[in-house]
Amino acid sequence: MKKLLSILALALIALGGAFAQAKPLTVVWYPNQGGEDWKAGRQAMDDVISQALGGRKVIDMLTTDYVIAIQAIANDKAALCYPGAAGYIQAEQINKKVVPLVTESSAKGTLDDSVYYSRIAVRVADAAQYYSRDTGKYTLNPLEGKTYSFVSTSSTSGFQIPTNVILKPTFAKAKGWKATDKVEDLFLQGGSGLFFGNVVFGQSHQGSIYNVLSGKADACSVDDIDVDGYFDLVAGKANMPGAVYATKQGAAAPFDTVPGTAFLVIASASVRQAPIIANMNVLTQEDFNKLRAALTSDAVASNPKIFTPKGYQVDGQAFKGLWNKTDKEHFLPVDAKWYDDIRTIMNQ
Fold it and tell me: For the chain, how are helix, strand and coil distributed in percent, rounded to 5?
């Protein structure tokens, strides 16, 4: 009888483990990737995750605010998230069990030069006022007193980096800002005695550049990876000051409401590629290892639904993938230390 009870107990434990393993895995997404036009790309990623974990069900949690996504991964409501570096660091500060899993390589297939861009953009129609004839370059001076759109205070390229660009020593000195002045005090609000006349938030990179194109803001912070699929580069060098991007004909919402518009980049800075992060309170180490092995595999690197080549179609329709394939892009393992420079900026 004792032997039978022991066998039953072991069976129940094993069954319980099986049920626990079968619990759906939740991936939380920033608003940037939450639109209907990104659905097929999200599903392609979910399929890879599910296959890596033996067919485990994957659920997408879509959000309307960066903070919601960060709280979800930090508070054990999600297993995986694809935030910017600042969002990862904020989640890590809440929960030390949140760690980087992988990040995207450069086009060369390497890590150290794996970057995207944070840009300060204005309407092309307003370009002349931001150009200095004295220096032959674009200047940030006319931003003073304007309505400015950030993405979110949790955005790396939509807040942390551009405010750091504005705070460069020469510009800060000219404005009388002290080293002890905080970004939050200088830029979170607009009004009398502050740099901007008014400050608004787009809650996504699409929302931020839309604020400019629709006339709700004079200038904004916006990255390249989340929005350039809606625009054509029509002048200048990609991402550099002077680059002009025109809204594509037939662009998806919300840009279908601003046809014929264009924006100009007046400043830019490179940013370390964003990580896919994992919550080790939700995942086992075995899960983590399997996911990292799957995501860094040649099969994923060559999967056009994950790393999408220009012009790739499914059933005659353009496929919008989350990552672009131009050469040797693939996922690489990454650790917490790789983002120390972003931590330094955030602690200034």
Answer: 40, 25, 40
Contacts 24+ apart (CB under 8 A), 229-238: 229/320, 230/206, 230/255, 231/262, 231/263, 234/262, 236/265
Q: What is the pLDDT of residues 276-304, one digit of tens each?
A: 999 999 999 999 999 999 999 999 999 99
3-class state of residue 59 by DSSP: strand
CA–CA distance, 225 with 117 (Å, rounded to integer): 8
Which among 267, 230, 223 has a CA at the least distance from the CA of 245? 230
CA 2 from centroid of its chain's CA atoms: 57
Q: Give me the chain's average pLDDT, please.
A: 92
H or E stretch covering 279: strand 275-279
Beta strands in 75-154 (DSSP E): 80-81, 98-104, 115-123, 131-132, 137-138, 147-150
pLDDT at residue 348 in the model: 63
Contact 34, 62 (CB under 8 A): yes
**0.70 cut: is pTM over it?**
yes
* Chain centroid to CA 233: 21
- How far apart CA 264 and CA 256 sit, in angstroms, is 19
- Between CA 11 and CA 225 the distance in angstroms is 49
**Is it the case that residue 316 has pLDDT exceeding 80?**
yes
Tokens standing for residue 70 = 């960060």
How many other CB atoms sit within 10 Å of the CB of residue 332?
A: 19
pLDDT band at 13 (very low <50, low <70, confident <90, very high): very low
List helix spans (H) across the chain: 2-22, 39-52, 66-74, 85-94, 161-166, 169-175, 183-187, 205-213, 285-295, 298-301, 340-346
Q: Would you state the pLDDT for residue 68? A: 97
Residue length, the chain?
A: 348
Q: Which residue has the tokens 């033996």?
A: 54
Tens digit of each residue's pLDDT (9 = 90 or more) over 52-105: 999 999 999 999 999 999 999 999 999 999 999 999 999 999 999 999 999 999
Q: What domains can you pick out in the chain, each with its CATH number?
A: 2-111+274-346 (3.40.190.10), 115-272 (3.40.190.10)
